[in-house]
Design goal:
seven-stranded mixed beta sheet, 32% helix, 340 residues, Rossmann fold, elongated, 2 domains, five-stranded parallel beta sheet, alpha/beta
Length: 340
């Protein structure tokens, strides 16, 4: 045992999904006070009971190891966790365990079991929570919900929420490049490309969010009502004829938003937020243009959401919301001109 450390072996248990600042604080506390740190990471079989969108075991483990290597915490050893307590109740070398406020009762239960097993109780090292930009506890579930990033920050800055964002001319080429997978098909038969896009989706997916009148109408004609739809009554910036307009009666809720071409407005942002938080199918009717809406949608949507939109003369673009996609959208939004 390192004489400079208070403890010989500290136990840490958890899922460690979307490795975040709170995880780092927990592990840092363990490494600071113990010669050896055993991290017991929830297996896939156990993790999927929480959410199908939790990262796989190897991904979660590798992120811990990368962080440990970066900080020269070579004392960390990782083991699979198959149940609530892991080996803590019978571990003969461990003398400490880290916990946050809500996991202290579990640690107390472990110590009761250890006493029955003739072992000394583990010293519980309580680590405070990280509070995110909304004043709530930073957690993997909130990250998966799309609300915050891994440091607890909102994906959209406060000043961007309250102002109109004007597209910078230098972004024109960037934004015309599809962000996602392209599924080609004849323009006169959009269901061909849409069928390919839908077939490519994973079995476990989040809400389907469709942007654009043709995209929405195609899904409805295929008897699929998207969870969220955004329409503006236009295609290629030309007003649609009456017979080609989307039948909004197919949706349980209608929201209206104002969003001029080449802009992103607080009105659109608030409408997307309302739609994402709704339990009903929602259509957002945009007065202006919805072409840039995916930038807001990906920043706000839960991990695993599917965004579909049409690419003129090409087909359908499909993009699943991930942390990397959110990062990219935030980066693009930072280049927009803020109009107060």
């Amino acid at each position: 045992m390192d004489s400079a450390k208070r403890f010989q072996c500290c136990l840490v248990g958890g899922t460690f999904d979307r490795f975040h600042t709170g995880h780092k604080l927990l592990l840092s506390a363990a490494c600071r006070d113990s010669s050896i740190v055993e991290v017991h990471v929830t297996t896939n079989d156990l993790a999927v009971q929480k959410s199908v969108f939790i990262e796989d075991y190897d991904t979660r483990v590798n992120k811990i190891l990368d962080w440990a290597s970066e900080h020269s915490y070579f004392k960390i050893k990782i083991f699979p966790l198959n149940n609530k307590f892991g080996p803590a109740a019978t571990h003969t070398i461990a003398d400490s365990i880290v916990a946050t406020e809500e996991t202290i009762p579990t640690c107390t239960q472990i110590n009761e079991l250890r006493t029955k097993n003739g072992l000394s109780a583990l010293q519980i090292i309580e680590v405070p929570h990280i509070i995110d930009s909304y004043g709530l506890i930073l957690s993997s579930s909130r990250i998966r919900s799309g609300t915050i990033d891994q440091d607890g920050n909102s994906w959209i800055e406060s000043i961007q929420r309250d102002c109109i964002l004007k597209m910078h001319s230098g972004l024109d080429k960037e934004l015309k490049t599809p962000m996602g997978n392209i599924f080609p098909g004849p323009e006169e038969l959009p269901e061909v490309a849409m069928s390919s896009a839908l077939e490519s989706l994973p079995s476990e997916k989040g809400a389907i969010i469709a942007v654009g009148d043709v995209t929405v109408r195609t899904l409805l004609e295929m008897e699929i009502t998207p969870d969220i739809a955004l329409i503006d009554g236009m295609t290629k910036r030309v007003a649609l004829s009456e017979d080609r307009l989307v039948d909004t009666s197919q949706f349980e809720r209608i929201i209206h938003a104002n969003n001029p071409a080449g802009s992103l407005t607080p009105s659109l942002l608030q409408s997307v937020e309302q739609a994402i938080s709704s339990q009903d199918s929602v259509v957002i009717i945009v007065e202006g243009e919805e072409d840039l809406a995916p930038l807001y949608i990906h920043c706000l949507a839960p991990i695993g959401s599917v965004v579909l939109y049409g690419q003129p003369k090409v087909g359908v673009v499909s993009q699943i919301t991930t942390l990397s996609v959110k990062e990219r959208c935030r980066e693009l939004l930072s280049i927009f001109e803020v109009v107060k």
